[in-house]
Structure formats: C-alpha cells, structure tokens
Specification:
Distance between the termini: 67 Å
Shape: globular
Strand order of the largest sheet: 8-9-7-10-6-11-12
Number of helices: 16
Order of helices and strands: HEHHEEHEEEHEHHHEEHHEHEHHEHHH
C-alpha cells in the first residue's frame, strides 16, 4: 500500500532531476543574461531599414550607442538597453521607431487552454519577448505551478508568498477589511476582519503591490513568478472562501493590477495552468483578451472544445451566483472579453493532417482563428529544450536560415497579435471618450 509519503518521495526525486536539467540550461548560481543583437537583426527584424542606413546614422552621430564588435571585428552587437535608446533617438524618413502606445492602462492577455504540450508557455514567452524587442514594457504573470515561464526568465528560487497565491492572500485581507467597513457596527458583520484570518494570510497581506514583481534577464520584462509550492493554491483558496463567504475570489488579480500605475507597463501576459480553478478564473476575469493555443491534432481540438465549455460554464455560474457579491466589490458581471483568439501551434504546412485540422478549426471558429500559426521547426523545439525563446537563441549556433524561419513564424504571429492589441486599445479609448 502507498500513501502521501510515497508521493512526497517521488516529488523529491523529480525535483532533484529537475535541478539537474536546469543546470544543463544555465547555471542557477549565475544570473541568466540576455544576449546582444547584431546590426543585421536590428535593421532587418526591428527597425525595418537597410543595415547600411543604420550604420550611416551611427557614424554620423557618435553620441548614439555604438555597440561592441565581436568575432571578425566587423559586426556590431547591441544590448536591448542600447536598442531602446536608439528607438528613442532615431527617426527614419521622419518616422519614430517607438511602438504605438495609446493612453490608458496596459492591455492584459491570458494565454490559456486545458491540454499540456500545446505551447501555452512557449506562446506567452515568445509574445513577451517579441513585444519587448518591439519597444514595449511587459509584465508576465505565471499562474502555473510548473513555473516553466518563471524558469525561462532565469528565476529559480521563488517563495510561494511571492506568487499569485500571495496576491490572493493580500486581496483577502484587503477585501475583509473593506467589507467590515461597510457595516456601521462591526459586530453586525457576519464575516471576519483581516486580523481574524490565519496568521500566514495576515503576514502576506501586509505586502505592497510592487513586492510581488521581480526583474528578469530582459530589461523591459518583469514577472510575478510561480513555483512548485504554489500548487496548493487551489486547496488553500477553497479554505479561504469557507472562512470568508463574501470574498469575490475571482477578482483578486484584477483588483491587484488596477493598483499598478497605468504607465508602468504596456502589456501584461498571463501564462495559465491547464485547469479551470481559482488561478485560471482569476486570469480570465482580469484579462482583456483570451488567447487559446492549440496543437494541430484531434486530441488538441477535443481539449480545446472541453476548455471552452468548462470555462464558459464556470463564468456563467459566477455571473449568476455571485452577482450581488460582485456588484458590492465593484466587479461588472458577466465578464466580457474584448477579443478571443485561437492560435494553432506546432503547425507543419506540408503535413496533410495539420492542414486538415487547420481547416476544421477555421470551419468551427471562423475569424477567431489566427491567420498565422506557429510553425514547428528545429529552433522551436530547442526553445523548449533549453528554456530559451527563438529570440534569445543566437543564430550563430545553428544555420541562419533555420533560425530565420523560426523567427519569422513568431514575428508573423506577433504582428497579428499586436494588431489585435491596438484594435482593442482603440476601441477601449473610444468608449471612454463617449
């Protein structure tokens, strides 16, 4: 017979192996560093100008970042900080290199689905990296206890109180006091105040909003990380709901993000766990846009179908069962997404099954299916193996065409994603101005 101790022992062995795998990707004793970028990359993929034109701009103004030479001394390489300074100071044909950024708060995008292996984290990571190279400031929130996105950002040691679970504990304390304050006589309140909650919840509740945010190896990407110990958040959250039945548990992350300054970030990306629970519901209720990655097989299609049904049912139940509670907390129900997009991943254009499944997705979901799928290439496979995105991989470590093909696939997906963002931003601003 086997009990929980066997599971714990298996977990310990797995964590030891996990550590070995991470050492193979980068030394946890060192800080993961973002590689520099060549003039060829910057001119071709970021600024959309001829390399010689960029070189002339640099030669004409020595005060601009000049990068460093490597290898044969001809190619210059620039850090992302230097690239962003060039964005701010250079203009080509009178056009600014700064990305479009309408007024208002950051756009929030949840990357979510049921099935593991469809590329949720790969999509979240690459969209965040592409946006950062495009000049945007990005906040990632890792809702998944597997913490793959956290590890890919070079963060290994994370305490559970610095994860989304900590945000939920903090929110419970703040909401408990808010609800208590609505009663003229505190003794009439049937719910506990913050100082009546468990000690561990109270200690986390004292943290400031910025305390949960950590820097990453990307200078313009921050993250609210996750860790394996945060897996108990579903169990703990159910306990907290039992303690405080008036707590609108599904609004924690949305309320937290509303505290951040509007101009702190341009884009916030959620990497969600493969389940419908407290964390994924928080991501859904905080998101403006829902991005649903799916592989090109029947099981992925089946899983996506189940995900849509269960998420829809869960959000309907909340809309019907928590209407009064949500209204008191300032939450508008039913929750409405600005857009919902389905993104095909691991796609092979020369595979008849993949082409047939893409046609099936488009037949069912119509215009909600992204026009540009993520293609399966060797560089994409390596991005998962080495916890490095295609943007982080050095094209000198493989054939340039292999790397270029993978990058162009993600660039096309990102440009379509960016179009969705800007359209949503514009619609939001128009509504506020009316």
């Amino acid at each position: 017979m086997r009990d929980y101790s066997d599971l714990q022992e298996m977990n310990a062995r797995s964590l030891a192996q996990q550590t070995a795998v991470r050492r193979a990707t980068f030394d946890p004793g060192e800080v993961k560093a973002l590689r520099p970028f060549s003039i060829w990359e910057i001119s071709h993929f970021m600024f959309d100008v001829a390399a010689d034109t960029l070189r002339k701009k640099l030669a004409d103004d020595p005060s601009l970042p000049q990068g460093e030479t490597q290898d044969d001394g001809r190619q210059r390489w620039f850090s992302l900080e230097e690239i962003n300074e060039l964005r701010r100071r250079l203009r080509f044909r009178g056009k600014s290199l700064q990305p479009a950024r309408p007024k208002g708060r950051a756009m929030r995008v949840a990357v979510s689905n049921f099935k593991g292996g469809v590329g949720k984290t790969v999509v979240a990571q690459h969209l965040a990296n592409a946006a950062a190279l495009d000049g945007y400031r990005v906040l990632c929130i890792d809702f998944d206890p597997q913490a793959t996105l956290t590890h890919s950002m070079g963060i290994v040691e994370v305490k559970e109180w610095n994860t989304v679970w900590g945000i939920m504990c903090r929110d419970l304390c703040r909401e408990a006091d808010r609800i208590m304050a609505t009663y003229d006589d505190p003794d009439d309140c049937p719910y506990p105040a913050a100082d009546e909650l468990p000690d561990d919840v109270q200690s986390i509740g004292a943290q400031r909003a910025q305390d949960f945010i950590q820097r990453t190896c990307w200078p313009t990407i921050d993250i609210i990380p996750s860790c394996a110990n945060a897996a108990f958040v579903e169990f703990a959250s159910a306990q907290y709901r039992a303690l405080h039945k008036a707590w609108s548990f599904f609004g924690c992350v949305a309320r937290y993000l509303d505290e951040l300054p509007d101009d702190q970030y341009d884009l916030i990306i959620f990497d969600c766990p493969p389940a419908i629970g407290y964390q994924s519901l928080n991501a859904a209720f905080a998101a403006d846009i829902l991005y649903i990655p799916s592989g090109p097989g029947y099981w992925e299609y089946d899983s996506t179908t189940s995900y849509l049904g269960q998420l829809g049912d869960a959000m309907e139940d909340i809309s019907e069962g928590f209407a009064k509670l949500a209204a008191d907390a300032g939450i508008s129900l039913p929750k409405r997404f600005r857009d919902i997009r389905v993104l095909m991943t691991r796609f092979e254009s020369n595979n008849p099954l993949h082409v047939a499944m893409m046609d099936a997705f488009r037949n069912v979901f119509g215009a909600d299916v992204c026009q540009n799928p993520i293609e399966m290439t060797r560089a994409v496979e390596q991005s998962g193996r080495f916890q490095m995105s295609v943007y982080e991989q050095d094209y000198r470590q493989m054939t340039r065409e292999t790397w270029k093909r993978a990058r162009q696939s993600f660039d096309r997906a990102y440009e379509e994603f960016k179009g969705t963002l800007l359209k949503t931003w514009g619609e939001t601003l128009s509504e506020k101005e009316q």
